[in-house]
Amino acid sequence: MSIVLVLACFSPFASARTVNSLSCTQADVQNAMASSVADDVIIVPAGNCTWTSLNVSKAITLQGAGIGLTNITISVSQGLTVAKQAAGVTRFQGFSVSSSNATAWPHSIAVGGGWLNAQPVVFRNNAFTMSGSAMFGISVAGGVIFSHNIFTGGWNDFAFTVKDLTNVNSWTTADSMGTNDANGTKNIYIEDNTFNGQSNGVLDCDDNCRVVFRHNTLANSGGFNSHGADSSPYGMRHFEIYNNSFTFPDTSCTAGNTSLSNINQYIWIRGGTGVIFDNSFAALSSTCWGRKTEVKLSIRGAEDDRPQGTCSQVHYPVPHQLGQSNNGVTDITDPIYFWGNTGTMQIAGGWGWGNPCGFTWTNFFQWSRDGINPNGTGGTAKSGYAPYAYPHPLTSSSTSADTSPPLVSITVQ
Length: 413
Fold this sequence. Notes:
This protein is mainly beta. It has one domain (48-399). 2% of the residues lie in helices and 33% in strands. Strands 1-38-2-3-6-9-12-15-18-21-24-27-34-37 form a 14-stranded mixed beta sheet. It has a ten-stranded parallel beta sheet with strand order 4-7-10-13-16-19-22-25-28-35, with no helix packed on it. 50% of the residues are buried.
């Protein structure tokens, strides 16, 4: 391997460098990363390549030639692994990535690392296509950002699964909703993306997940799904879902349960607290599947999968159930707020796993205690809540590493 250094005529105070990969092959990209240091930009040229185990473990930018130009195929779990770094922000941009038949956790692209002691990973200006596959397996509670990406998939092709069983202090740390996330590093931000298909769900927000889902456009997408502390040990920590457009263009009667028109709900909340506001909802109604509820509320922890034990041991509140949070010392009741949503929005809560204990739903979920504003349209904003800066500062062009003038360009051969 030889390295060619090319001095560039830029300011002597510039610190970023570009490292040119010879091609988009995994071997060439890995060689380029081996020659890089923090803040470098790895230029990956146009081409069609397959990655099976590319590992990004430095705070660098992987810069493709653009959507439809640098095309990467992944058909195995962890074909790409990205770890958050303390040294700086890691970026992945300008790629088209396709994934097929990769359903094993942590899915085609695995993202992990420390929650509070590392800087975010930013995925921006990419296209992701799934076929019988899930794309992102995220094993950290927060600090991952998705901006201006396009996701296309079939009925059960989830874009994101978040399940953090390492940074379990997420549930016992006070919330980082809105401006409580002072530096924009504690939550997962999914903003300004386009989702096509993925009718059974775009996102599964599971153990310790803190997510902000905002300013996205969804077409025939099941949208936001979650888990509680039932079939999972912790469940979702908290969520912010706002300024999204949920559309339903395919209302025709298409045969088979995996039809893109078979959307069971746009939002399914199974635990934790959060806010849902200023979204636009098309009615979930089709000639084939009938009328379905746009927002669904569940408490499986009081049904078949009970963390408190037998039916006689179960009482309100079930651990981490709907409308529960933590103030940094103990779990508290903190209701889910709905306000300002438009279009057609029905909110339905109730049992979904047979209710073997014969409980009354309103003993476990009550409007004004566990949720605020049952129609979701008018209502009052959550007191003291203000959204975090939009767009996220790390997604602006002025902070993207690929726009920084390089002092040195390195070609790895």
